[in-house]
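lol ok so funny story. i was supposed to be doing the assay writeup but got distracted and ended up predicting the structure for this chain instead. priorities right. anyway since i did it might as well share w the group, maybe its usefull for someone
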Amino acid sequence: MGKSRLTPRERNEQKWGLIFVAPTIIGLLVLNIFPIFQTIWQSFFKSGDFGRGNVFVGFQNYQKVFGDVEVWQSLWNTLKYALVEVPVSFVLALLLAVFLNRKFRGREFFRTVFFLPMVVAPAAVAMVWKWLYNSNFGLINNILGIKINWITEPSIAIYSIAVIGIWSVLGYNMVLLLAGLQEVPRDFYEAASIDGATGSQQLFHITLPMISPTIFFVLTTRIIAAMQVFDVIYMVINYNNPALKKTESLVYLFYKYSFEQSKKGYGATVVVVLLVVTMILTVIQLIGQKKWVHYE
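and the output, tada:
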């Protein structure tokens, strides 16, 4: 049998389809794919004198990274941030989504209020939270009647930064989970109520299994984003802050090496390490989701 030929209309649809997706494909290649390979290639070089030129050094940068205490500390700081920000923001967002999925007066107003942090400029967020965390006249210490150095005490500074991250992404997670909740048929809840199921039983046996694909998407994207935390640390923690070493993330370290010290090769190596760690975490999630995510 010969190959079926496309009709003029089908060829025209294919042409316009390619035209419409071309900007996205070009954008991914130029802004995402190409920089990844360029960064990996850069990690095998050392910046020349005065930041000019590159000298091929092979795996020397990687050998140095694995023995660099600052890199390991930054990795640990990044993991601590993610371990606090991701689960707490997810649980709070899920509770808010369940609450705001019900019908009551002012529901749209509350949805808007909780989503607002997502559209606020990061610089404004940092300025407000630095004032809230101020140990002398900050609102938090004055309300609680205590004096804690929230962002200058090395042992708690990274958790204070995580609180800012939780506040910033809460509305985004809520909107995604709310979209998933609205796809759950109401008949399931009515049948469960007739059978005598309580609210918590409906949550764990109906709601969570039904929105498990949305939960998986939210957790996966939030872990990737949390591992790339930079802006809030850069704007809240000053260079003379005693907690700087305990709050530096891997991306912050990359910025310091690449743009402040002109060690672009070593900075690229730090980013490659972050890429590998993030890929490992993502693969673990992809394998684990087969046991708890229901797509039916």
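The chain has two domains: 8-56, 67-292. The longest strand covers residues 45-47.
back to the writeup now i swear
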